[in-house]
Amino acid sequence: MASHKASHGPVYAFIMAGGVGTRLWPRSRRRTPKQFIDLVSGETMLQDAYRRLLPAVPPAQILVGVGSDHVSTVREQLPDLPAENIVVEPSARGTAPAIGLGALHIHRRDPEAVMAVVTADHHIGNAALYRRALMAAAQVAEDGHLVTLGITPGFASTGYGYIRRGERLCAVDGFDAYRALRFTEKPAPAMAQAFVDSGMYSWNSGMFIWKVGAIWGAFARLMPDLHARLAEIERAWGTPDQQAVFERAWSEVQQQTIDYGIMERAHDVAVIPVRIDWDDVGSWQTLMQLLEADDSGNALAGDHIVLDTRDTLVYSPKKLVAAIGLQGMIIIETDDALLVCPRERSQQVRRIVDALRDRGREDLL
Questions:
Q1: Which of 70, 294, 334, 346 has the fewest CB atoms within 10 Å, i.e. is most exposed?
Q2: Average pLDDT of 281-294?
Q3: Which SS3 state, helix, strand or coil, does residue 13 take?
Q4: What is the Cα–Cα distance from 336 to 4, expressed in whole angstroms?
Q5: Helix (H, G, I), strand (E, B), or coil: what is residue 342?
Q6: What is the location of CATH 3.90.550.10 in the chain?
Q7: At what angle do helices 212-222 and 224-235 cross, to 10 degrees?
Q8: Exposed, middle or buried by CB within 10 Å (0-12, 13-18, 19+), for 5?
Q9: How far is residue 342 CA from its own chain's centroid?
Q10: Does residue 30 register a pLDDT over 70?
Q11: What angle in degrees, to the nearest 10, is found between the helix axes of 95-109 and 212-222?
């Protein structure tokens, strides 16, 4: 196994802060999605994601991708972020177009830059190790690899994607980089257990590091339609037609994920397994695991009285919630809605959001 050269180009970080977070309803709403609220740490998840990058990446080299409805929220929550570092998506088109737009902004500033793609809705417990892993990945990316951080599985989760690793490529600052052989999306329980037992799989964290020129080339090869629309936007940059071209080209962009569009089909993907106390905060069940539990396994936040209750989440910032004789439940209180469901069905909360939409209850979305 070879050690890698200890150098890389300037690192720019792109924080993806779009999305609504429907499985965290009723706390996460269209007007205030989960990434803009404080759920655990005393700061919003966007603020956590931003501060985790410092000082490895300076504010001038941190960009935030966000929908047009939440630009003012980003400015309020990240006052040190330069205004020109807010990358506005006119409408949601999935992770591939969002990352492509971020890559376009970074490429215009520095074609030799390394781009680190992170998300605003992750919990990461060891920030120092996380920054080291990003910088190690930046060095691996200098060889042209599309690098992803893989999380060493703590259990056989069926809610995360998995990455099968192959030959070892190099070692950087105590981290081993491997060729990524296969991506598997949210396997069945038996398959997930087999993956974990093999010791050859990592969870797909959705964090990516690459030379901005390398991902630009990957878009050209593997997603030529998206690349063509982004190239149109780039050609119009700085002209009187810039905004009109941007809006027209973006309206023609198809919905697509970066995993399916690029990572599952590219031949130069590397994975660096890491142990950084990571969670994708995508459901109330996940959030419960991040909160301190009492002797009965209850995670309690806000005003509450619980008696003879076990393994239950109560999240009540304002009203008193009283519970007797419950086990394995989730109770979430807000000003205008109350959610009650079994813990094992927390992934299905989005069905309630769908039902509200079908009934025209836009006031609650």
A1: 294
A2: 90
A3: strand
A4: 55
A5: strand
A6: 11-280
A7: 120
A8: exposed
A9: 26
A10: yes
A11: 130
User: What's the gap between Cα 251 and its chain centre?
Assistant: 24
Is pTM beyond 0.85? Reply is yes
How far is 128 from 130, CA to CA, in rounded Å? 5
Helix axes 45-53, 127-141, angle to 10 degrees: 60
Q: Band of the pLDDT at 4, cuts 50, 70, 90?
A: low
Distance CA 141, CA 163 (A): 18
Between CA 361 and CA 244 the distance in angstroms is: 33
What are the structure tokens assigned to 121, written together? 């809705």
How are beta strands 278-280 and 122-124 bridged, if at all?
Answer: antiparallel
Confidence grade of residue 318 (pLDDT, cut at 50, 70, 90): confident
Q: Which of the 8 DSSP states describes residue 121? A: T
With beta carbons less than 8 A apart as the criterion, state whether 115 and 210 touch: yes
Q: Residue 77 contacts by C-beta under 8 Å, 6 or more apart in sequence?
A: 36, 44, 46, 47
- How high does pLDDT run on average in the chain? 94
Q: Read off the pLDDT of residues 235-259 as tens digits, 9 standing for 90 and up.
A: 999 999 999 999 999 999 999 999 9
Predicted local distance difference test score (pLDDT) of residue 198: 96
pLDDT for res 2:
55
Structure tokens of 115? 């781009």
User: Per-residue DSSP letters for 153-207?
Assistant: PSS--SSS-EEEEEEEEEEETTEEEEEEEEEE-S--HHHHHHHHHHT-EEEEEEE
Structure confidence by residue, pLDDT tens digits, 140-151: 999 999 999 999
∠ CA(50), CA(290), CA(197), 5° rounding?
105
Write out the CATH class of domain 11-280: alpha beta
Q: Do you find a cis peptide bond into 55, omega within 30 degrees of 0?
A: yes
